[in-house]
């Protein structure tokens, strides 16, 4: 009988090189940042956006005297100007050139008629009433010519007072009708803030209500009062308007602003950082960390105030909620906290 020693050796070697017994893989641990749910007061706070504008009586219009074409823009929107400074230069439209020629001719004819009436009156050929009629006709013709406001082929529109040019949207080459307000000049120091709000929300805002205003970059923060609410809907923005007086802070017209104000009753309850609140198809939830494990908890959010939101149901004061890293978590996942945020 033959002994198959080589084959037996190979089988033994294969057995020695086999896989080791199963070892349990380490569980994944997510890095998160947390904060505590705290008991406190909150209200329905609203953030709105707007801009500064000239206050009532602080804006003076710059009006086109006759149909004309914009020749040059000398002081665009936002330019600080002094009284009498040139804002826009105009040239007459073809229609206005015809009117200028006609008004000049009418004025010359009326002047000649008035001089003739004076001579004839001195000779006793006409009455004083005839002279006054000729004088009135001359005054009318002269006023008509002057009201066109374009002499020497150009009309120069100047600032009626010191301030900032606003609302100048015309461009070189645009033809403007007579009486068009091409721009306004807002006086320095007479500035108010105007904000757009939803018309339904505007009904809950009233004059005298506190409002916090600041520029978009966070500067020039101030706490003032609402001075007026206009429920009429702006046809462009489809929003109502809220006005607040801006004290002398050096702001001119046209500065972008944001503001916050309370539009609901104050309530007491549990609040958490807004960043902790998650949403999944309309389901609001948070991750609560306990003993190093994150559990998904359904909640009912309430009013928001600044960077915090009230939770009406689902949390208790002291619960530790995930504020960063929650979108990558799964229910029951182990977590490791990094520099937990202090509750506000």
Brief write-up:
19% of the residues lie in helices and 41% in strands.
The profile of the biggest β sheet is: 6 strands, mixed
Q: Which bin fits the share of residues in helices? A: 10-25%
Strand order of the largest sheet: 18-19-20-24-1-23
- Secondary structure class reads alpha+beta
Radius of gyration: 39 Å
Kindly state the number of beta strands. 24
Number of alpha- plus pi-helical segments: 4
Average of per-residue pLDDT values: 82
pLDDT below 50 for ≥5 consecutive residues: which ranges? 1-15, 17-21, 340-344
Q: Which percent band covers the strand fraction?
A: 35-45%
Order of helices and strands: HEEEEEEEHHEEEEEHEEEEEEEEEEEE
**Separation of the first and last Cα atoms:** 89 Å
Which word captures the global form? rod-shaped
Structure description:
With 344 residues, this protein is an alpha+beta fold. Helices cover 19% and strands 41% of the residues. The strands form 5 sheets. The protein has a 6-stranded mixed beta sheet with strand order 18-19-20-24-1-23, with no helix packed on it. It starts with a helix and ends in a 7-residue tail after the last strand.
Secondary structure topology:
Elements: H1 5-16, E1 29-36, E2 38-42, E3 45-54, E4 59-63, E5 68-73, E6 80-81, E7 86-92, H2 94-122, H3 128-147, E8 155-158, E9 163-166, E10 175-176, E11 181-186, E12 191-197, H4 199-202, E13 210-215, E14 222-230, E15 240-245, E16 256-262, E17 267-273, E18 278-280, E19 283-290, E20 293-298, E21 300-305, E22 308-313, E23 320-324, E24 333-337
């Amino acid at each position: 009988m033959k002994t198959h020693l080589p084959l037996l050796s190979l089988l033994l070697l294969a057995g020695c090189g086999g896989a080791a017994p199963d070892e349990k893989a380490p569980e994944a641990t997510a890095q998160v940042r947390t904060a505590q749910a705290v008991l406190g007061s909150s209200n329905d706070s609203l953030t709105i956006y707007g801009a500064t504008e000239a206050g009532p009586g602080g804006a003076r219009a710059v009006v086109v005297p006759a149909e004309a074409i914009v020749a040059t823009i000398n002081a665009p929107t936002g330019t600080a100007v002094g009284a009498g400074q040139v804002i826009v230069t105009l040239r007459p439209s073809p229609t206005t050139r015809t009117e200028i020629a006609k008004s000049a001719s009418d004025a010359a004819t009326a002047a000649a008629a008035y001089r003739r009436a004076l001579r004839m009156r001195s000779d006793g050929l006409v009455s004083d009433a005839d002279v006054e009629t000729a004088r009135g006709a001359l005054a009318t013709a002269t006023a008509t010519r002057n009201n066109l406001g374009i002499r020497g082929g150009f009309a120069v529109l100047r600032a009626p007072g010191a301030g900032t040019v606003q609302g100048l949207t015309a461009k070189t080459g645009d033809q403007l009708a007579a009486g068009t307000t091409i721009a306004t000049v807002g006086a320095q120091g007479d500035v108010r803030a105007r904000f757009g709000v939803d018309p339904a929300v505007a009904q809950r805002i009233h004059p005298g209500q506190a409002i916090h205003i600041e520029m978009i970059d966070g500067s020039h923060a101030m706490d003032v009062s609402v001075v007026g609410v206009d429920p009429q809907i702006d046809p462009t923005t489809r929003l109502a308007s809220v006005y607040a007086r801006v004290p002398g802070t050096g702001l001119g017209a046209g500065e972008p602003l944001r503001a916050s104000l309370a539009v609901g009753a104050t309530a007491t309850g549990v609040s958490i950082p807004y960043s902790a609140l998650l949403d999944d198809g309309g389901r609001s939830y948070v991750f609560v960390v306990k003993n190093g494990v994150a559990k998904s908890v359904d909640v009912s959010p309430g009013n928001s105030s600044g960077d915090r939101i009230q939770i009406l149901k689902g949390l208790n004061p002291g619960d530790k909620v995930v504020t960063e890293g929650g979108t990558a978590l799964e229910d029951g996942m182990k977590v490791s906290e990094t520099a937990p945020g202090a509750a506000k």
